[in-house]
Design a protein that fits this description.
The chain has 630 residues and is an alpha+beta fold. The chain has 14 helices and 32 strands. A hairpin with a 6-residue loop joins β12 and β13. The longest helix is centred in the middle third of the chain and has 17 residues.
Amino acid sequence: MRSPSYAVLPARGLRAAVVLALTAGLATAIPAAHADPAIATTATTDTADATGTAGTGQAAPAAPTTPAAPALAAKPYMGWSSWSMQSSKYPGLNPDGDFSYLTEANVLKQTDALAAKLKDFGYEYVNIDSGWWRDRAWKPEFDAYGRQQADPVRFPSGMKAVADHIHAKGLKAGIYLPAGLEKEAYGDGKTPVWNADGCTTADIVYSDLRTTNGWDSAYKLDFAKPCTQKYIDSQAQLTAGWGYDFLKLDGVGPGSSKSGDNYDNVADVAAWQQAIAATGRPLHLELSWSLDIGHAGDWKKYSNGWRVDTDVECYCNTLVSWENSVDDRFDDTPGWTRHAGPGGWNDLDSLDVGNGAMDGLTKAERQTYATLWAIAKSPLYTGDDLTRLDDYGLALLTNREVIAVNQGDTPPARPVTPSDPQQVWAAKNPDGTYTVALFNLADAPAAVTADWSALGFTGKAAVRDLWNHENLGTRRGGITEALPAHGSRLFTVTPHGSTLTSTAYEAESTANTLGGNASVAGCSACSGEKKVGNLYLGGTLRINDVVVAKAGTYLVQVAYVSGDARSADISANSGGAVRHTFPSTGDWGTVERVSVPVTLRAGTNSITFDSSGPGYAPDIDRISVPTSPR
């Protein structure tokens, strides 16, 4: 249920309103060794001993020697999450009121369906999202130590019993918490902290009770106080004691639509990493939502994954919609690409492609959605109703060749062409092949071409269609496909040609012409350690003396720096300009490259980058012009 004060929020900010009411973390109960007699009715399934492990308080027997477990987050995780269905207005999903879908019975039903339909394909996590500790009126449950515990109506068996059922199916269990100390858990400031003599909730927050997280639903924790880490430790011990394998920490900033000191939760994330390590139980720590890329180093240091964008859900009568935020990922993902790798991954949110009309997408959109998630190496967790996957959705979610792109040692792909309506994304794989995706993001059908020169080679290449499990034979120079609106194709390309040769032209060369505000600046990551920037309000860079032997259209590679997506008009020899949008490089110290078609005449040419209009163009490092046209 949303607070009336948040009713005017746009769809993408709706979760801020929703979770203000919903957010509270882990269903918790009192450790048996320290149980408060006043609440001795706590379900025994949620009890934990003084070490945070479920049981009677006695030392556990030594575990037998087993092979080392795989490294945590060695690859993007796969599974199911409850949030998409519990937040949707789709008829029948939440019959007892908003967000009423989240119940023990429904989680176990999805667990059984995951085990039966998707487990063999690598899906293993069952993640319980926000609201499991609140009743239908959103009143929360806390134990005597200010920790969330299961709502007895939603989860009558308790959270440990749910985790046990998930584990019995050979799966892993995930749970959720918001950043900070929830306001309702503070009480009068005298609530004791578990296993921390003399510490109370007043001893873990700032005295002015400043708020934090994406919804201001919690008091900010003050980690200068020694009791504060003890509180996080108590939550981690309880979570581990219940047997959970995954924790989503939500509303984390900087990011989540908030900035400033109150919303800087880096210390919270670091404290959680420390607390998890102390439990001795491997526990995947995922951060949400829409994290600040300026703190990517912190997210990588302290967690196993981080959301890079707003919620994918539309908060409407379907699970998602193309326009709500599925399409936004094409703009927002590229800047994060270089941060993904074993141990921590860029999280694009739920992959809701399995339920047909309930998803709210065309078949083409469903495939495109799944293609981007796969090539970006995002975790693959669906929010669909697994009990009613349609044939097409099941085929998308269980395509082993596409899953292998996501789960194998292939790197994340990023755009090799501008972020225009027709795009090509690619990655070079360790075995010398390329993963290549074609996207038509326009609202009408269009052809999309992947030129081999944009990948760095010329000549022939063998092409494998991954969605259709079909070898397309050998193609010379590239591949062109007619795609429907919002359509895509996904290929593995094996080069049989030669390395592309080209001539480089530095942007800062004195032979070039700068106009308006354009100026040369230092750039340690750039070729020659310089670039041309300040391309705004009509500022221009004209690269002179570009020489080619033959007239034709050349795929010119542009090396650039741009902390956000920016556009420029590109022309040759004072001819007609074409406007292209350059994907974000993530910051102002990283160089990326895209290739743009430019028509040149035989002999000497000039190529101009014009910022035009009120916006900024990217900073330009250099261009590379192939020795022959495409």
